[in-house]
Design brief:
Blueprint lengths: L1 E3 L2 H10 L2 E8 L2 E8 L1 E2 L3 E6 L3 H8 L2 E11 L2 E14 L2 H15 L28 E16 H12 L1
Antiparallel strand pairs: 1-8, 2-3, 2-6, 4-5, 5-8, 6-7, 7-8
């Protein structure tokens, strides 16, 4: 069965996942890349160093973001949202966003040597001085969610015909 996620299901999926994909477009090029993120109910927060993704989002701040939970080819949920890229420039706000990203990642670390800041800084909570660490948010303007669940279809089929 294919269907549309409820608003509560969309919110739950955005809050439960750790990795999403940003889609950006600039100068006749579309680029999609996975990022670690956290969701606060109105915006998606992530970080990056300088590069193609940041250059493109600075050029065209209108972006798309996708999150999914795929259990199997016939059992998945997906959320797509649209919004505006905005860099966080106030140091205290950058530190708070970075700490929330780290707090979100820590439960998923498997080894003591894992470093949630991805080696961008020597210490996990630093926002960096050697590499320009860019923290940003996507201010959400629209979101939608879909799912497929063959088990729901089978239950309906069995209820109708058996």
């Amino acid at each position: 069965m294919l269907g549309k996620l409820s608003e509560n299901q969309v919110e739950e999926l955005l809050r439960s996942q750790l990795i999403g994909r940003i889609g950006c477009h600039s100068n006749d090029t579309t680029y999609i890349v996975p990022v670690n993120y956290f969701y606060d109910g109105t915006s998606i927060y992530a970080h990056s160093s300088e590069g193609m993704k940041i250059d493109m989002m600075r050029s065209n701040p209108q972006v798309c973001f996708e999150v999914d939970d795929i259990k199997s080819i016939f059992n998945w949920q997906s959320v797509i949202l649209w919004g505006t890229y905005e860099e966080i420039t106030v140091l205290r706000e950058k530190e708070e966003a970075m700490q929330k990203l780290i707090d979100r990642m820590i439960p998923f670390l498997k080894n003591d040597d894992d470093h949630p800041s991805h080696g961008i800084t020597p210490n996990a909570s630093d926002v960096g001085s050697d590499v320009e660490l860019i923290l940003y948010r996507i201010i959400i303007s629209k979101k939608t969610g879909r799912f497929e669940n063959i088990n729901l279809c089978s239950k309906r089929y069995n209820a109708i015909f058996y």
